[in-house]
Specification:
It is a peripheral membrane protein. It is built from 32 helices and 22 strands. It is α/β, with parallel strands linked by helices. Strands 15, 16, 17, 18, 19, 20, 21 and 22 form an eight-stranded mixed sheet that branches. The longest helix has about 50 residues. The structure holds adenosine-5'-diphosphate (ADP) and magnesium ion. Magnesium ion (MG) binds next to helix 6.
């Protein structure tokens, strides 16, 4: 019996069918243009590109040019790499251009598909990014497809980790740039830590095509990209808090052993607040509930956990003055492993050990938020349909299932369910043996590396030769994948392994040729090619006769998508193939979900020892269980994203401000506004609105003006004058501070002053933003702490994060104003000391950079404002950045009595500064 939905779909078609149908006319148009483009010579194709560019510049839309551009691209690819794109590939390309995910099965040729929308969109001159899951693929695809782009007169770049700066900049400047998601994200973060526009790598974020989009935007979406570095020393805070914890009574907290959770009670909070006030850790008048208290609250919580949840010689030991964690299962020491978020430091404080500095986040972004920067996004993968809702909700990406070029001939078996894992593995080994004897290649899928290893042992015991793939060495991996379709090959793979390289029956002919040429460099490569190709045709036929690739999965994954990925490795381009899932009631997924129901069902179906149950019911019920887990995981990702969105909004504001400042010639207006706001705040604080003169604190204002504005103004005298009100005092203070800055500008010279202002602004923004990031991290861990008044943690987090952001901006204004009020030209001695220090810092940075992990490169530039800050004055070297002693243009305006920057040892006025 057919359901109503099924009947309706038969009549009306699915929404997907309609989308496919809608592109048909476009594909027909491209096909009709083919003879015309075939007639063009090589220069003619490039001339077409020029023509399209011009038409776009003259206002023609990309959609209008699409048929011709695709026809040109098809012809270019045919000539350059010998592949004539199938109609379904054109369709896939159209959907990408329209900002969708094109779901196309493995082996359908997605690498080529991406060139079509990339070519079309790059005609705007804005730069297109093609995103791959690993560096090997970025390089492979860039090299392969650059021939196509080259034939069309476009440039291709590839970006990779640790790439020399100028090379990377060139790669980003290319029309089309291939890169991994990681490198793109890190470059974005690094760019926003730069202090000069010219040092930035990325251009605008216009259009990105993300390959294996589900891996990148779903699987990896939970881990943010982080650039971290050592933080400032907080030892004193840890020690002070550590002393407080033992003074708390037993009713100050509640402990939940099972979830390893400990929280303060209401009584505890009161007692705590009192203690914190008494020790001066919390300023008088500030409560634990104020946003400003976030950091203290966080550390107090960590202190409590350190004392109540972590026991010496059980959870950790102290060895040579270090706190070393113990693995709770094996009892082994985990040397070098540290608890995060200041917990390790809290334990160090408790044990009286030296407190090691914590590593803090300098910059951070999630993939979701990075990829949302693009004006337009497209994605490709073999498996997206099951996550269509998530793609739409989070990225606004629709999923279109593009039909395969040839009908799928793969046979998908019903699941086989065994009672125990042992029985299952026995059956698997048996099944592999049978296939292997026929010569049928087998790809065995596992859900973890450990299980791969277990299976590998079983196969070895059974005398079956095999390869193991586990997504570590991408290049080697490509080789193993290339061999996985050979006659009688057995390959074990975990989830992600080998994505991006497809398995060809009889092996990968290009790899075979490459190897043969390498093995015999003297011989004629063309002859080798001919020989191998002939042999390969036979190999391929033999494997097809043996039934094609057999995918044998040893478990179902939490997500149907990953299962489909594995299945889809077989049966590419209409090849024969087979897929089978072997399961047992002891599998993780079965245990967690519905195993009871399954158990009942299985006994109903009558399950005997050693036998497997095979029934469509089982598949259905498993798929329901998977859908449930998928839904839960989606919820977790959504929740995380909502938290991250808060930070993301703020990051966008800060990064945009930074950029604006870098772009500006002159930021004096910004610093002036800041200064005036500081004046307003000071006046409001000491001369509150609607008060009489005898209530004014003019002495306080006088002192504050010296401290914050660097202005020594006769505020007390002004206060005594007849008819003077707050407004007049405000104006006079403003004038005095403006004059003071104008004097400095005159002393430094306007050009230098502008540089200084820019530097101070950027550096202060960076410092404040980093502190703020840390506070936000703390806030996230403490929102629960304030949660027992039945408030929603997310809302709580949003409100407080906003307040914290505001107070960060306020403190930014103050610091910038204060620093600018203290700058002064530096003396000779200071200058010498400073260059020395700078040289040391640079050497240290170089060392750090060399030792840095590729994933998290610490790139903080030494803050020039930190140097010589002691003596109450911030001594800023005129133009330290980019200083070059051989180039007087980089010297700024040295004072006439300073040593000449050229290093001659003479005074400036007697050397380069001589007025002739
Ligand atoms: P996918 O990424 O979709 O799995 P690939 O881009 O890796 O597929 O391509 C798989 C294979 O198909 C490659 O060896 C490629 O040369 C081949 N291929 C792609 N497009 C065509 C085409 N139009 N005609 C013939 N072979 C093609
Ligand atoms: Mg691919």
């Amino acid at each position: 019996m057919l359901g109503i939905g099924t009947i309706a779909r038969k009549v009306f078609g699915t929404p997907n069918d309609r989308k496919i149908k809608a592109t048909r006319p476009l594909v027909d148009k491209i096909n009709a243009l083919e003879p015309e483009f075939e007639k063009l010579d090589d220069a003619g194709l490039i001339a077409k590109t020029e023509e399209f560019r011009k038409r776009i510049a003259d206002g023609e839309s990309l959609d209008h040019i699409l048929p011709e551009a695709f026809a040109n691209c098809r012809e270019g690819a045919r000539r350059a790499i010998g592949l004539r794109a199938f109609d379904v590939q054109l369709m896939g390309g159209i959907f990408l251009h329209q900002g969708n995910i094109s779901e196309m099965k493995t082996g359908e040729g997605k690498t080529l598909v991406a060139t079509f929308p990339a070519y079309l969109n790059a005609l705007t001159g804005k730069g297109v990014h093609i995103v791959t899951v690993n560096d090997y693929l970025a390089r492979r695809d860039a090299e392969w497809m650059s021939k196509v782009y080259g034939a069309l007169g476009l440039t291709t770049g590839v970006v990779y980790p640790q790439q020399p700066e100028d090379e990377k900049r060139t790669a980003y400047a290319a029309d089309i740039t291939y890169a991994t998601n990681n490198e793109l994200g890190f470059d974005y973060l690094r760019d926003n830590m730069k202090s000069e526009l010219s040092q930035m790598m990325q251009r605008e974020h216009y259009f990105a095509v993300v390959d294996e989009v589900d891996s990148i935007l779903v699987d990896e979406a939970r881990t943010p990209l982080i650039i971290s570095g050592p933080s400032q020393d907080r030892s004193e805070l840890y020690i002070a808090i550590d002393k407080i914890i033992p003074e708390l009574a037993d009713d100050a907290y509640t402990m939940d052993e099972k979830t390893r959770n400990v929280t303060f009670t209401e009584e505890g909070n009161e007692a705590l607040e009192e203690l914190l006030h008494a020790r001066g850790i919390l300023p008088e008048g500030q409560t634990l509930y104020d946003p400003e208290s976030t950091t203290v609250v966080h550390h107090v919580n960590q202190g409590l956990r350190a004392h109540k949840l972590y026991s010496r010689d059980k959870d950790y030991i102290v060895r040579d003055g270090n706190v070393v964690l113990i693995d709770e299962f094996t009892g082994r020491m985990m040397v070098g492993r540290r608890l995060s978020d200041g917990l390790h430091q809290a334990i160090e404080a408790k044990e009286g050990c030296q407190i090691q500095p914590e590593n803090v986040t300098l910059a951070q972004v999630t993939f979701q938020n990075y990829f949302r920067l693009y004006e337009k996004l497209g994605g490709m993968t073999g498996t997206a349909a099951t996550e269509a809702e998530e793609f739409m909700e989070i990225y606004g990406l629709g999923v279109v299932e593009v039909p395969t070029n040839r009908p799928i001939a793969r046979q998908d078996d019903d699941d086989q369910v065994f009672r125990t894992a042992r029985e299952k593995y026995d059956a698997i080994v048996e099944e592999i043996k049978i296939a292997h004897e026929k010569g049928q290649p087998v790809l065995v899928g596992t859900t973890s590396i450990e299980k791969s290893e277990l299976l590998s042992q079983l196969l070895t015991r059974a005398g079956l030769k095999h390869n193991v793939l586990n997504a570590r060495q991408h290049e080697q991996e490509a080789q193993i994948v290339a061999d996985a379709g050979k006659l009688g090959a057995v390959t074990i793979a975990t989830n992600m392994a080998g994505r991006g390289t497809d398995i060809k029956l009889g092996g990968n002919v290009e790899f075979k040729i490459m190897q043969a040429i390498e093995a015999d460099p003297e011989a004629d490569p063309e002859a080798i090619r001919a020989r191998i190709e002939e042999g390969h045709a036979q190999d391929e036929a033999a494997v097809k006769a043996a039934g094609g690739l057999f995918v044998l999965a040893t478990e179902r994954h939490e997500s149907r998508r990953i299962d489909n990925q594995l299945r889809g490795r077989s049966g590419r381009q209409g090849d024969p193939g087979r897929s089978s899932f072997y399961l047992s009631l002891e599998d993780d997924l079965m245990r967690i979900f519905g195993s009871e129901r399954l158990d009942r069902m299985l006994s109903k179906l009558g399950m005997k020892e050693g036998e497997a149950i095979v029934h469509p019911w089982v598949n259905k019920s498993l798929e329901r269980a998977q859908a449930k887990v998928e839904g839960r995981n989606f919820d977790i990702r959504k929740q995380l994203l909502k938290f991250d969105d808060v930070m993301n909004d703020q990051r966008k504001v800060i990064f945009a401000q930074r950029r604006e400042i870098m772009e500006a010639e002159d930021v004096s207006e910004i610093t002036e506004d800041m200064r005036h706001e500081v004046v307003d705040e000071l006046v409001d604080t000491y001369i509150p609105p609607k008060t009489y003169a005898d209530q004014w604190n003019t002495e306080g204002l006088y002192a504050a003006a010296i401290e914050k504005l660097g202005v020594d103004a006769p505020v007390m005298k002004w206060g005594d004058e007849e008819g003077v009100d707050a407004e007049i005092i405000r104006e006079r203070l403003e004038e005095a501070s403006d004059k003071m800055i104008a004097d400095k500008a005159a002393a430094f010279g306007p050009a230098t002053m502008r540089q200084i202002e820019k530097q101070v602004l950027l550096q202060t923004i960076d410092t404040k933003w980093r502190e703020h990031l840390l506070t936000l991290e703390h806030l996230r861990s403490v929102v629960g702490f304030r949660g027992y008044a039945q408030r929603d943690p997310l809302n709580e987090y949003k409100t407080e994060a906003f307040q914290l952001f505001e107070s960060m901006l306020e403190s930014l204004r103050e610091t910038v104003t204060e620093q600018l009020s203290r700058i002064r030209p530096i003396t000779e001695d200071e200058q010498r000391a400073m260059f020395q220090q700078l040289a040391q810092q640079q050497a240290a940075l170089r060392q750090q950079a060399e030792a840095a992990q590729p994933a998290t490169a610490p790139t903080p530039v030494p803050a020039a404002a930190d140097t010589g800050a002691e003596a109450g004055g911030v001594a800023l070297a005129p133009l330290v950045e980019g200083f070059d002693e051989s180039n007087p243009d980089t010297w700024g305006s040295p004072s006439r009595n300073d040593a000449c920057p050229c290093g001659s040892g003479k005074k400036f006025k007697h050397c380069h500064g001589r007025l002739s």
